[in-house]
């Protein structure tokens, strides 16, 4: 049997799914005896244009990775044969277990510039080695969850379904995109493993190729309905959309006599609003008032908002490429940076990339209606602000000494949390156009620490 073109990588736990410079630094840390405790935080430096907020996502995968991360025997053998590293590093990797602490925002929490999504406190070798994979999990799912949230907010009252697996940049990306979209409020996914892995409801129809394989649309629809009587959503636009809708009304009585209801029809091209109105009229005139209309075909949040505002009679939207690639914004300006080492706060001051030093905490204040009105970025060791309206500190203990403090909330609970948080966002932050900046103030104590660290760095 020929060798697989893909390496055997356990994507949930392999420490070798990393960048070479991580291993280079570990080798040098070990040689120098630099093995003290470090604090790293993952944050976004600035909000992108047309993003009034980000929705934190990916914590479940981070926790799973940190608690299970290993270098297995085959990986160690390959590293040894490569000749790149010393036996000292190989011995360290062979015994690797994450022994540090993790603090994090709950998934589904809106987050803003400079605010850490997670804080890792661990021996520097451990905290450094997990960097690449933590950024993978947090950056991508936060990116997609934010995109999905914008879509949900743009189409109130509509169901949204992830159709993006085939256009995702990998199978893993497609699976995690389905999770992030569900967290943000999508109603389901077409990705089969997403139900297996996360319990996300599966939604699917048929392809044009199925219709084309039969001599008529009526024959195709009847064959599909009889084989999948609970999945009767027919694709209408293979040839002529309105003619196909009439075909559905013609075969519906035959199917009804067999105990099969026509659950829906799907539109995938053309002027979706105009087609939906015509198809709705055809279905209603035939008494198929309960038959839903599904629309897909390159939709993004602007098109969802326009169709919803126009009152297009579409019940469910299938979203693919624009969701899983976050098409208008394919990456966040994010970082996982050293904030302290061996008890001393640290930061870099590179142009455009300076950040606040030391472990930090986020405090959020709300008005009487529960809407956030401003955040405060503080040193983690500063007292929480007193007075009405302040939430509990947003970063909360997740791991201590490498083990969970408590079970994470279920994905369903995280989804409910996200829905509650999104419903409370001030309207300007939810706009598709550029939003006014949300205030993130910085405490005097954190500013003083930055001045102290900068003075130390110039010595």
TrEMBL record:
Disordered: region residues: 349-368
Enzyme kind, highest EC tier: ligase
GO molecular function: nicotinamide phosphoribosyltransferase activity; nicotinate phosphoribosyltransferase activity
Nicotinate phosphoribosyltransferase N-terminal domain: residues covered: 16-138
InterPro entries: Aldolase_TIM, N/Namide_PRibTrfase, NAPRTase_C, NAPRTase_N, Nic_PRibTrfase-Fam, Nic_PRibTrfase_pncB, Nicotinate_pribotase-like_C
Protein modification: Transiently phosphorylated on a His residue during the reaction cycle. Phosphorylation strongly increases the affinity for substrates and increases the rate of nicotinate D-ribonucleotide production. Dephosphorylation regenerates the low-affinity form of the enzyme, leading to product release.
Zinc-finger is among the record's keywords: no
Ranges of residues in domain Nicotinate/nicotinamide phosphoribosyltransferase: 160-340
Ranges for domain Nicotinate phosphoribosyltransferase C-terminal: 393-449
Pathway: Cofactor biosynthesis; NAD(+) biosynthesis; nicotinate D-ribonucleotide from nicotinate: step 1/1
Chain's role: Catalyzes the first step in the biosynthesis of NAD from nicotinic acid, the ATP-dependent synthesis of beta-nicotinate D-ribonucleotide from nicotinate and 5-phospho-D-ribose 1-phosphate.
Record's protein name: Nicotinate phosphoribosyltransferase
Protein source organism: Tistlia consotensis USBA 355
């Amino acid at each position: 049997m020929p060798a697989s073109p893909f390496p055997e990588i356990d994507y949930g736990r392999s420490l070798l799914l990393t960048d070479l410079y991580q291993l280079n630094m570990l080798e040098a840390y070990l040689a120098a005896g630099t093995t003290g405790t470090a604090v790293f935080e993952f944050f976004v430096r600035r909000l992108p244009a047309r993003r009034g907020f980000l929705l934190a996502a990916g914590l479940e995968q981070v926790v799973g990775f940190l608690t299970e991360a290993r270098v297995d025997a085959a990986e160690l053998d390959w590293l040894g044969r490569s000749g790149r590293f010393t036996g000292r590093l190989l011995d360290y990797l062979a015994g690797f277990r994450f022994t540090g602490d993790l603090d994090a925002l709950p998934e589904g929490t809106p987050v803003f510039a400079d605010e850490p999504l997670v804080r890792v406190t661990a021996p520097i070798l451990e905290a450094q080695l997990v960097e690449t994979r933590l950024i993978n999990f947090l950056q991508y799912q936060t990116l997609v969850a934010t995109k999905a949230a914008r879509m949900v907010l743009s189409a109130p009252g509509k169901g949204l379904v992830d159709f993006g697996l085939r256009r995702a940049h990998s199978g893993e990306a497609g699976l995690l995109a389905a999770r992030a979209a569900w967290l943000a409020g999508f109603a389901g996914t077409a990705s089969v493993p997403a139900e297996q892995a996360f319990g996300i409801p599966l939604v699917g129809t048929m392809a044009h190729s199925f219709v084309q394989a039969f001599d008529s649309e009526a024959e195709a629809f009847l064959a599909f309905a009889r084989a999948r009587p609970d999945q009767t959503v027919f694709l209408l636009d293979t040839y002529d959309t309105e003619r196909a809708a009439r075909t559905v009304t013609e075969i519906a009585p035959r199917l009804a006599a067999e105990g099969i209801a026509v659950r829906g029809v799907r539109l995938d091209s053309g002027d979706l609003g105009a087609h939906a109105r015509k198809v709705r009229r055809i279905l209603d005139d035939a008494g198929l008032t309960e038959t839903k209309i599904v629309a897909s075909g390159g939709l993004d949040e602007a098109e969802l908002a326009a169709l919803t505002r126009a009152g297009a009679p579409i019940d469910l939207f299938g979203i693919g490429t624009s969701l899983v690639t976050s098409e208008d914004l394919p990456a966040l300006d994010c970082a996982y940076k050293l904030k302290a080492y061996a008890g001393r706060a640290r930061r870099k001051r590179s142009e455009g990339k300076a950040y606040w030093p030391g472990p930090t905490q986020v405090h959020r204040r709300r008005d009487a209606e529960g809407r956030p009105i401003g955040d405060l970025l503080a040193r983690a060791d500063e007292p929480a602000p007193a007075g009405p309206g302040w939430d509990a500190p947003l970063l909360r203990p997740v791991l201590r000494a490498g083990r969970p403090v408590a079970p994470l909330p279920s994905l369903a609970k995280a989804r409910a949390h996200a829905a509650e948080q999104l419903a409370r966002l001030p309207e300007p932050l939810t706009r598709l156009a550029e939003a006014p900046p949300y205030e993130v103030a910085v405490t005097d104590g954190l500013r003083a620490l930055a001045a102290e660290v900068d003075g130390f760095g110039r010595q």
